[in-house]
Structures are given as C-alpha cells and as structure tokens.
Amino acid sequence: MKPVKITEGVYSLRVNHFNRRLFDSLIPLPEGTSYNAYLVRGSEKTALIDSADPEKAGVLFDYLKDEKKIDYIVSNHAEQDHSGSIPLVLERYPEAKVVTNPKCKELLMTHLHIPADKFLEVKDGDTLSLGGKTLEFIYTPWVHWPETMVTWLREEKCLFSCDFFGSHLAAGELFSEERQVYGPMKRYYAEIMMPFRANIKGHLEKLSKYDISFIAPSHGPVHNNPKFVMDIYRDWAVSEPRNKAVVAYISMHGSTYMLVNRLVSRLQEAGVSVEKLNLDQLDEGRVAMALVDAATIVIGTPTVLAGAHPKAVYAAHLANLLRPKARFVSVIGSFGWGGRAVETIAGLIPNIKAEVLKPVMIKGMPTGADLILIDELAALIVEKHKDLKH
Length: 390
Ligand code: FEO
Known about the structure:
Elements: E1 4-7, E2 10-17, E3 22-23, E4 27-28, E5 33-41, E6 46-49, H1 57-63, E7 72-74, H2 80-83, H3 86-92, E8 97-100, H4 102-112, E9 119-121, E10 127-129, E11 134-139, E12 149-153, E13 158-162, H5 178-193, H6 197-207, E14 214-217, H7 226-237, E15 242-249, H8 255-269, E16 273-278, H9 284-291, E17 294-304, E18 307-308, H10 310-322, E19 328-335, H11 341-347, E20 355-356, E21 360-363, H12 368-384
Parallel strand pairs: 6-7, 7-8, 8-9, 13-14, 15-16, 15-17, 17-19, 19-20, 19-21
Antiparallel strand pairs: 1-2, 2-5, 3-4, 5-6, 10-11, 11-12, 12-13, 17-18
Helix pairs in contact: 5-9, 6-7, 8-12, 9-10
Bound molecules: MU-OXO-diiron.
C-alpha cells in the first residue's frame, strides 16, 4: 500500500475494514468501516495523525514501509480504534513524540501503558511547525470522549477531525460523494455524536472561523465539500425537530400491531412523517438514525410478565442513552390481565426531556372504542407538531 496524496505534503493512510460488522460489540456496521491515519510531511519534520485499530496494524505499517522517520504522532482521541497502534508505531520510531492534550495523555497512559516521557503536551490553540506546515490543536471535548480534539493544518486548510464528521464506511474513493456518504454519516452521528449535541453546537461555532478546504476524519472518506458536511451536522445537532414521529414497536399476538397500524395511518393521513420500526428485527443504527430529527417517539409494547416486552425495554433504554431532541413521547400497547408496561418504559427515559402524551394501554384485542383512543392520540400529536417543518 502506498500513501495517497490529498494535497501538498498530506497523505491518507486509510485502513479499510470491509468485513467488520459490529463496533463496540454493539453497533451494526452494514458498510464496514475504516481507521484513517494521515501523514503530514514538512520540510523538517514528519507527523503521523492518529493510527489504526491494532487488529489492522499490518496495513498501517505497509503504508509506512518506506517512511524512515516520524517525529510526531498526533493523537486526537484516545479510543483504541485510532490510538491502539501507537505503541507499535513508537516501537518502530522510538524517537517520535506523542503530541496530545493532558487528558488524552492520561487516557493513553491508562489504556495503552504509553510511558509519560513519550508525550509532548499541547494546549488549546498551540501550534507545532513541521517546516512550512503548521499544525494547530483545537480542543473539541466530548465528541465523543472528554479528551477529543481536532488538528488544523493551516497551509493546506485541512482539518483532521478524528471521529467528528466521520462515517462508518469502507470506501475505495479518497473523497466522499454526497449521496453515498449521507446515510453512513447520519448513522455515525446518531450512534456516536447525538448524545453530545450541545457540545457539537459549540464546536461547530468554534470551527466556523476556519476556512476549511478538506475535512479528514478518522472513519470513512475525506470530505472536500466541507460546507455540505458542516450544514448537515448543523441540521442534525442544532435545528428544531421535524414534523416526524418514530413508532418503535413489538407485538406478540397482533393486538399491539393493530394499535400501531391505526396510529401510523392516522398520522400519515394528517401529514406527519412516520418511521415505523419493528423491534423484532432491531438494528440499533436504524433506531438511532430515526431519532435524529423526530419530534415524537411512540413505543408500542405488549405486556410480558407484568412489564413491557424486553425488546421494547431495550429500545427505550437505547433512546434514553442517545438523548434525541424529541419533544413528545407516548406508549401504546395491550395487556392480558394487568401490568405496569407504561411505568416500566417511563422509568427508562429520564434523559429525554419530552412531554408525555397520554398512553393508550388496552385489554386484549382492540375494540372500536380502543381505536378511537388511538385516533385521539394521533390528533394530539398532529396538534403538537403544527408548527414544525418537514
Ligand atoms: Fe472512532 Fe471514538 O473512536
């Protein structure tokens, strides 16, 4: 493998992982992923920006086989998919210094046992000259760990953003294509970044003063269309929710399914966009993506052993962790002889600062009167959404 030139003195060392199907033993990767390191060559010094997952260190070293000297290894983020090969890089280039912020240093020492004397600490706004190439370090904490930062290469207007603006997408092309990357970027944002929307809003403002030509993230292709990338991030992280409802449900004998179908029909007839997600075949990424811009979340669940169905419990817990910007929530479903399904779900979502719309839990198979209650819930959702855009 040969480093791929992005612009003068800047090279991509992308390590594609086409066959990986799960990240963090949790997140489905339908399109694989990549771990991107970058090489910046100045007239005096050479810097490696981040590294690769140690499982794929061999590919990284294949890229580096002709690289005689690395002076700096910039670590933007301590998570092991980017930092895990740094100890191996230090073995091969023992004179190199790991350039990072104090928090990231602490985490790299904890997770990878890198000795303290291997580090060069940088503060927010510090610069490092490589000779005709100047790296500036910009703190962007909580995207998505506390130590995250990005690195700006002034002369080439290139932002090395690590996870920020990334996508789980193993791709052959160097640069992203908008239609191809939109879905993987949204999935990535939803799963990784959405819980930190407030931080992201501030970081987008901080980065708006930089005249960016390239965004080089550590997952997925390089973006040479930074306006597109920043605009969609602003839309996801900052904009109001849309006139959209997510109805995530599971049904055992069809009663909950009848309620769900009635609700979805009534909402769609009234012009509300609906994402109807069957939790029987749960794809955590699909659920997360659906939550990015929905104004209302409705969980549909039957009653199992006096509580909500375990798959509905899992979905509610997941939604709570992701902290979506939904404004309204409700629960619909059925029971045989009693239970506390609504209380179970309500107790699982304290992070979602939303108004609870009156749940509809009915006994057995829905009657005509039960379906009227669903119609009333649909009408309430429509009323609550009346000022929201599509
Ligand atoms: Fe891609 Fe947070 O690591």
